[in-house]
Amino acid sequence: MTGSLVEIEIEPGAGGPWRAVCAYHDLLPGRGTAVLVDGRQIALFRDRGGEVYAVGNRDPFSGAHVISRGLLGSRGATPVVVSPMYKQAFDLRTGACLDEPAGPGGEPAALPVWRVRLTPPASGCAGDVAPPNGGAHRPETTPS
Q: Which parts of this chain are annotated as the region Disordered (predicted)?
């Protein structure tokens, strides 16, 4: 994975397309970073176990784009990011808020999630896919 590129699926759940957003080694374990893709801010995280997650960077409670600066941790077996604003915890796999079901205006309190895969740099092969965020990577086959 050292020389791999991190790619995210641009239209979540729509089967692609995929976009390379950074090199795997650019993501520091236990830290987040924000990337801008087609006008959307996406928070990328690499946990200490090496898994990569992609969620929306906008905190649904404050409206600030700060999720990439949140603290990584877990609630039981659930990997979470804790917002630096009001400290709500969000499941990195689903985007669900574990503390409150709705935001201040009554809208669902969840972060959008993107599927992540790792691919070798400058390669035509599809790489490894983490469905949809986190979990064990599995090889993806390219159509013949």
A: 123-144
